[in-house]
């Protein structure tokens, strides 16, 4: 089979592109340097539990079409993400809501919570938040910032909050109701049986060939790819051999353990917001699927600065990196046969639904 499209990366973006292109009658070759498909949404069974190997992925969207799209590939359960935050010996609900405020200040009504926050914000005199610290302080005041945001954010990003862009914290809702649902989206859930099967099905068309353990550069060196169109979902700067600068990422190291207990922390996600605890959070995978297994699997997440050879997870969207990205995107825009997509190709902090939406749009404009 000669491929009209070579898709580099068998993650969500590449697989949706392959599926849609194949549907339109195009032959696709999907390659991945890893020895498995599904990119970072890869899940693997351990002790009967679906373990999210590259960090927890919770599907949520308000885009009805995308929700219907993913439901064609898996049944989703009723999981609602309600993380808990531990700060020293104190425990709070996330996202910031009346449960958090009432515990923090021993108050009960939204008016009391708003008054507390307003008092703290007035003392600081911030009018136009210029960075994450000011944004967070003006949203929730000093107490919550100090206990639940500062340490966690500085651990996750390895930079002071005053040097981070405000938009990162806007991902986190703040509400004045007793509602612990982390997301504001209309649809939410975890695919029963894990994420890998979704990608398996996306790649199941006869017009799609998948080759694992192959690097694109290596493939190019070994064979002539002719005039095949390339959809590249790896790091855009790596594609150009870092010629226009290196984009920064945060990486995560996971310490995964099987424990001989049926319930370790009583919740899927527990954040450790204290700076002195070295990990940012502990994921107990079975709670994503209401598991009743006798054992449990937990993953501690240690955030770290990325360097070549590590897995890149989060783009660092500060000014330096944005300027560098702009240079790469300009160069990429001039390519005739190569398109860059997905979190690494676009260097964007994408949620899964946005990745699918982008992939569908890409295919529409492409074929
Ligand atoms: N955040 C925080 N405290 C928390 C959880 C999150 O301050 O307990 C902030 C932090 O700055 C983080 C951002 O909110 O970078 C977004 O967090 P989210 O959990 O949405 O990130 P992800 O799940 O993508 O790692």
Silhouette: globular
Task: Write down the secondary-structure element order.
Answer: EHEEEEHEEHHHEHEHEHEEEEEHEHH
Largest β-sheet summary: 7 strands, mixed
Using the coordinates shown, work out and report the CATH topology of the largest domain: Rossmann fold
Provide the gyration radius in Å.
Answer: 22 Å
Ions, cofactors, ligands: which are bound? uridine-5'-diphosphate
Distance between the termini: 19 Å
Low-confidence stretches: none
Descriptive report:
- The protein is α/β, with parallel strands linked by helices and 367 residues long.
- It is built from 11 helices and 16 strands.
- The strands form 4 sheets. Strands 7-6-12-13-14-11-15 form a 7-stranded mixed β-sheet. The chain has a 5-stranded parallel β-sheet with strand order 9-2-1-10-16.
- Strand 6 and strand 7 form a beta hairpin.
- The chain starts with a strand and ends with a helix.
- The mean pLDDT is 96.
- The chain binds uridine-5'-diphosphate.
- The site of uridine-5'-diphosphate has 13 residues, from helix 5.
């Amino acid at each position: 089979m000669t491929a009209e499209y070579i898709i580099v990366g068998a993650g969500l973006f590449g697989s949706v592109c392959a599926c849609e292109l194949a549907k339109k009658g195009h032959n696709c070759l999907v390659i991945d340097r890893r020895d498995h498909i599904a990119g970072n949404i890869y899940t693997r069974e351990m002790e009967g539990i679906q373990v999210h190997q590259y960090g927890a992925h919770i599907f949520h969207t308000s885009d009805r079409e995308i929700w219907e799209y993913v439901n064609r590939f898996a049944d989703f359960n009723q999981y609602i993400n309600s993380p808990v935050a531990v700060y020293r010996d104190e425990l709070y609900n996330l996202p910031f809501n009346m449960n958090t405020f009432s515990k923090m200040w021993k108050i009960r009504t939204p008016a009391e919570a708003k008054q507390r926050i307003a008092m703290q914000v007035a003392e600081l005199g911030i009018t136009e938040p210029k960075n994450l610290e000011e944004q967070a302080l003006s949203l929730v005041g000093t107490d919550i910032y100090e206990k639940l945001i500062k340490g966690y954010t500085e651990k996750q990003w390895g930079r002071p909050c005053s040097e981070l862009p405000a938009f990162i914290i806007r991902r986190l809702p703040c509400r004045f109701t007793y509602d612990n649902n982390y997301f504001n989206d209309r649809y939410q859930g975890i695919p029963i049986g894990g994420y890998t099967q979704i990608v398996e099905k996306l790649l199941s068309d006869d017009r799609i060939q998948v080759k694992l353990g192959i690097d694109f550069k290596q493939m190019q060196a070994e064979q002539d790819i002719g005039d095949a169109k390339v959809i590249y979902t790896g790091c855009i700067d790596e594609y150009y051999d870092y010629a226009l600068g290196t984009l920064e990422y945060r990486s995560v190291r996971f310490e995964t353990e099987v424990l001989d207990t049926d319930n370790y922390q009583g919740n899927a996600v527990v954040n450790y917001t204290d700076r002195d605890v070295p990990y940012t959070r502990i994921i107990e995978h079975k709670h994503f699927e209401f598991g009743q297994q006798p054992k449990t699997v937990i993953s501690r997440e240690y955030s770290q600065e990325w360097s070549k050879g590590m897995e890149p997870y989060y783009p660092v969207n500060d000014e330096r990196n944005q300027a560098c990205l702009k240079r790469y995107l300009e160069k990429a825009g001039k390519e005739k046969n190569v398109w860059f997509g997905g979190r690494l190709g676009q260097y964007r902090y994408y949620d899964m639904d946005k990745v699918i939406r982008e992939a569908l749009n890409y295919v529409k404009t492409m074929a």
